[in-house]
Write a structure and sequence with these properties.
Helix content: 25-40%
Oligomer: single chain
Radius of gyration: 18 Å
Number of helices: 11
Strand content: 15-25%
Length: 263
């Protein structure tokens, strides 16, 4: 039996096992997908080999550490500097990023878009910023401090901290932080959101299956909102494709995963 897992912290809330195992069951694939909480980022690849995995997904806060530890990084992940999918090839672990394309697939209903504000500067923010820029959108990154903004500066993004930020009009605002996942926190000061939302059309939170304070406030301001369910779905379909070397029909895999969300 092939074993795959989700590596991150926290992972108990994740429905990734349900997504992948639903396909394994339907297609009679001898494989199982589980969760594995990993606190130490440096232990990712050690855990991968100790569990004798065929593949894995990586979630917060380890996506950048995964990028650094892979034997090889392919595709858009090389530009992003963050990996969310690990695939075993013999004695090597290959890293990919399916977050970027999965996110972009999930915002098609929001088009047309021009200006986007991303809250946070972690691995997920990198993936979203890079794919949006590739598609010709203007992207601003807002983070609490300068600590993680260097990547975005070198890539030519407009970067702002809480001290320098001046709210303006955006088509879409995206929360990529963990604010609201385990608490009732907002991803940035309330005053910022109260100034931004009246000039914004769409709000997106990568957190899924939980009504975050960020989206609740956006809905109160009559924005069209989405959580991260479809991003998770699409990135999972793309990851499945990588795990099994494109042996299965992608549309069929999506159709088998989609009922997990009742989408």
């Amino acid at each position: 039996m092939l074993l795959l897992t989700l590596l991150g912290n926290p992972v108990a809330h994740s429905i990734s096992p349900r997504l992948h195992n639903s396909v394994f069951k339907a297609l009679k694939i001898d494989a199982c997908y589980v969760r594995k909480a990993v606190e130490d980022s440096e232990a990712l690849l050690k855990t991968f080999w100790e569990m004798n995995l065929s593949g894995a997904n990586v979630t917060v806060p380890h996506k950048e550490a995964a990028y650094a530890q892979c034997d090889e990084v392919r595709g858009l992940a090389k530009q992003i500097g963050a990996v969310n999918t690990l695939v075993r090839e013999g004695t090597r672990v290959i890293g990919y990023n399916t977050d970027a394309e999965g996110f972009y697939m999930s915002i098609q209903a929001f088009e047309p878009l021009n200006n986007v504000l991303i809250l946070g500067a972690g691995g997920t923010a990198k993936a979203l910023a890079v794919i949006l820029k590739e598609r010709g959108l203007n992207v601003t990154i807002l983070n609490r401090s300068h600590a993680r903004l260097e990547f975005f500066k070198t890539q030519g993004f407009n970067v702002q901290t809480w001290e320098t930020f001046s709210p303006q009009a955006y088509d879409l605002i995206v929360n990529t932080t963990s604010a609201g996942l385990k608490d009732e926190a907002l991803p940035c000061p309330l005053a910022f959101l109260e100034a931004i939302f009246p000039q914004t059309r769409f709000a997106y939170d990568v957190i899924y299956n939980k009504p975050t304070p960020f989206l609740a406030l956006a809905e109160q301001n009559h924005l069209t909102c989405k959580d991260g369910k479809e991003m998770l779905l699409y990135q999972a379909v793309l990851a499945f494709d990588l795990f099994f070397a494109q042996r299965y029909d992608r549309e069929n895999v999506e159709a088998l995963m989609r009922p997990v969300f009742d989408l």
